[in-house]
Amino acid sequence: MLELRRITKSYVSGRHVLTDLSYTLAASEYVAVMGESGVGKSTLLNLIAGLDTPDSGEIIIDGVPMSSLDDDAATRLRRTKMGFIFQAFHVLPHLTLLQNVALPLLLNGASTQRAEEMLAAVGLHGRGNDFPHQLSGGEMQRVAIARALVHRPTLVLADEPTGNLDPDTAHGVLMLLRAEIKANGASAIIVTHSDAAAATADRVLVLTSNGLHPAS
């Protein structure tokens, strides 16, 4: 599903965050990536999603090198195959909750019926006409999770998806995330500092300056 070939990335300051990183994520594999702050976990997700470009190396999704795609083709790939849960939510303030969740379906020309189902699944039944400014941080995170899963993506990328949730809500969201990933046969990478979140994955990897390694 996903192959990283010798990925290198530096910050503007010149500090290397990823150096010669290689990894293959199998179809239907769900992995958690942990590691110290600043090691490059969020950068790795942004590179995979095509929101940033590596200094060198190649990212291949479903056999297609990302470097071979123009902007329009890369956007279509993200729109149809990826679901991204951002640490900063990126919920659109001028849209209702239902419109936010339905957006991937609209962009793909699909029925929006599933948007209401996903809102209910994350505990926001009946809130579809509310706007983001009416929500707590935890509720916005749940909207972001519903939006990322609504179009049944084949690759889910999640950056600290439960960082703003209380333990009980986090557990429910993690179970939903895993169930959706498995039901759709999707591959997934979750970046997290939470042992509880990492425990829901099939494998736990640790990102260091020397690459990705199985957690001990």
Protein architecture, described:
By secondary structure, this protein is of the alpha/beta class. The chain has one domain (about 1-215): Rossmann fold (3-Layer(aba) Sandwich). It is about 35% helix and about 25% strand. It has 7 helices and 10 strands. It has a 6-stranded mixed sheet. A hairpin with a 5-residue loop joins strand 1 (about 1-10) and strand 2.
End-to-end separation? 25 Å
Q: Per CATH, which architecture?
A: 3-Layer(aba) Sandwich
Secondary-structure element order, N to C: EEEHEEHEHHHEHEHEE
CATH first level: which class? Alpha Beta
**CATH fold annotation:** Rossmann fold
Side-by-side strand order of the widest sheet? 6-7-8-3-9-10
The largest sheet, given as strand count, sense and whether it forms a barrel, is: 6 strands, mixed
Distinct helical segment count: 7
Q: Unreliable stretches, pLDDT < 50, 5 or more residues?
A: none
- Proportion in β-strands: 25-35%
